[in-house]
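Hey team,

Filing this mostly as a record. A colleague (T.K.) asked me to run one chain through the structure pipeline before their review meeting, and I want the input and output archived in the tracker in case anyone asks later how it was produced. No errors, nothing strange. Just documentation.

Input sequence:
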Amino acid sequence: MLVYSVYDGQQPAAEFPLQQAHLIGANDIGVQGDVTFREGMIQCDKRSPESASLVLLIDAGEHGRLMLPTCLLPDRDEPYLLYLELARHRIKMFLVKLEDWMLFELEEDHPIIRQWAAARDLFTQALSLESTEPPKAQELARQALIQAIAAGEKLTFMHADILLAKRFANRGEPAPALGVRTYQSQFAEPLTEIITRDFDFISVPIRWREVEPEEGEYDWSKYDRWIEWAGKSKFPVMLGPIIDFRALSVPEWLYIWEHDYDTLYDLLHEHIEAIVKRYRSSVSIWNIASSLHINESFTLAYDQLMDLTRMATGLVKTLHPQGRTLVEVTEPFGEYFSGHPRSVPPIVYAEMIAQSGFKLDMVGINLQFGHHQRGQATRDFMQISSILDTLLFLEFPVVVTGMGGPSHRPARNAKAQAVAGEEGKSSAEAAGEEPDAAGYYREPWTPVRQAEWLRKAMSIALSKPFVESAVCHELFDHQSAELPGAGLISSMGRPKPALTAMGDVHRELRRRVLRCSLPSERDWVVSVPAEDEP
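Output structure:
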């Protein structure tokens, strides 16, 4: 059995939150098992014998409350010290990324390397005390973890700055594009003015249950306004996902055919055809399918998932040859896989569709953080950068189809989330629930913290040379949002600091001067060869 010990002061901890805790194995693929806490011990009951890593929300001091993994560990009789294994993983991860990002030439006296070395020294001290003074070892390991996260964050910012400088130095390469998702029922002239000023394109999500609430009865009214405006203004549009079997998208009447694949196939064909024919004159990018790899609401066989994807991509290309197509990967850290054996790990799925020969132009990845929903717990910037790096080998352009974090501490009650901030308190407080169960960056989510986080996350994503564009998760807060509170404008119509931040990012992209770090954060100087140099 895999067991971790946790202390509160000098005594075994009486309680320890296991929010969103799960197990992963080699290549970060989920491992089925149960995670429980009892009398100072976290017990991981795996259903298979392989080594595993525990991933859970951790108090990371000044860095916030973050989803962090331990190293891959084999079963053993004596417990592992949780914070020691968390620190071990982060110290190792720093070295891996140092090599991956070709930054290994940094001198030993560089401030980032010195901070990592301080983390390593604290870890070494903790390791020497693990068996004799575990409470003291835990405290030293926790300090090592905090130092290692800080060093990794700075390395991530430095790497993003270098990539942005190189990307902009190549004048023949267009700057990446910045988009924003618009909710279909929130159309107003002031919003179109904001969009044309601060963004390059709009992403319009289309939910089957809203466009065809009854079989054969279409209601296009909510979507027509945005699409017609974009067409008249010649403003680029990304539409979709067209196929999405999550509960928020599937119409009730479709469940009748859940176990009749042939009929489901025909209905999907009709649905895709109706949407593409109606909007192909205005849409430039089609988000064809999303979340098929999770395979949750409709449990289809693997060959059926691939068959539907093949049909959908081919049909869209036939109906609109000039349109570009993508398939979207959601929950990219794969938390769902440990509890859903019929699902496909996210990066494995991305590799399969990239190698399948489908008529695809791009791959999409959706990155949502800071909510209770599975797969949306807060991650640090090195993890975000690393998950994007896994898409490099697909040899496809990548679109970040949604990047978002909330402006207030989340609540499970959507109504409480919608009014949060307007009354001067967090949504969790408004709902009377435990706050911070989804984690946060540095401090509990606020509008200012959201803006800071979103600028960093967007800059990291747009620095990747294979990322063609990125989309802000939501322009306007609304009760049907997948990530409540992640809008750039509140539900009361008040602009948040994040809107200003994205406007700044857009202008800096156009001027080709965007950087991830602030001048006050830099312990480095980025120099890029002139265009005529090798």
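Quick notes for T.K.: Residues 34 and 434 are 23 Å apart (CA to CA). Residues 414-433, 530-534 have pLDDT under 50 and may be disordered.
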